[in-house]
Amino acid sequence: MSAVSEFALYGYFRSSAAFRVRIALNLKDLQADLRFVHLLKEGGQQHSDTYKAVNPQELIPTLMHGGHTIGQSLAIIEYLDEVVPEPALLPPGPAARARVRQIALAIACDIHPLNNLRVLQYLRHKLGADDTARADWQHHWMATGFAALEAMLTQGAGTGRFCHGDAPGLADVCLIPQMANARRIEMDLSPYPTLRRIEEAAYLLPAFTAARPENQPDAE
Ligand SMILES: N[C@@H](CCC(=O)N[C@@H](CS)C(=O)NCC(=O)O)C(=O)O
Predict the structure, then answer these.
(1) Residue range 73-79: average pLDDT?
(2) In angstroms, what is the span from residue 93 Cα to ligand 1's centroid?
(3) Which of 8, 12, 175, 211 could disulfide-link 33, Cβ–Cβ 3.0 to 4.6 Å?
(4) What dihedral angle (degrees, nearest 10) is formed by the CA atoms of 182, 184, 187, 193?
């Protein structure tokens, strides 16, 4: 389609919110012009005046398309799903869509923000938390969130090969990057067999592997 070359994505290889958008773009076979925002260099390029003009939240990702500038990974992904409907990232039917959004939001609203860079920096610099305390914080909030997700996905009717059914969707797009974050801090994932099974299924798909942090051009 003609819109393909018009996507531009501001991101950073290690950003799990950008990882979500990379997966969604790949699942839809869309290319984007990648613009790299290094979250640590120069005090964090997300805080530069140039980037603030793009996204006043000073967070990545940001998508540009057709003259629109869109922040917030879930807003971006739902936008992509509306602009390029196939393959759909949300299932048909209100209850199924609500279930998928429930899983996605449990990750994007209740796990990820507590472990974000700026929160960890605040813990260190303003509250004096040392490395051990910060690691404890991260493990605690990820484990709390993952325990709930494991229960939802194990007991919930609707779980299939992926979080909902046998095709990847919005919930998987959020889950897999969060698990990558958990692995990065060497969290014990043995209590979450369903999450690990879904992760294994996801990484059999090129859309997920190509989006991994280590496979990005700005990876260090
Ligand atoms: N809710 C936002 C979260 C965005 C976010 O927190 N991005 C992180 C990277 S994963 C970031 O830009 N952090 C920069 C910082 O904390 O200064 C979304 O889903 O897009």
Answers:
(1) 98
(2) 30
(3) 8
(4) 60
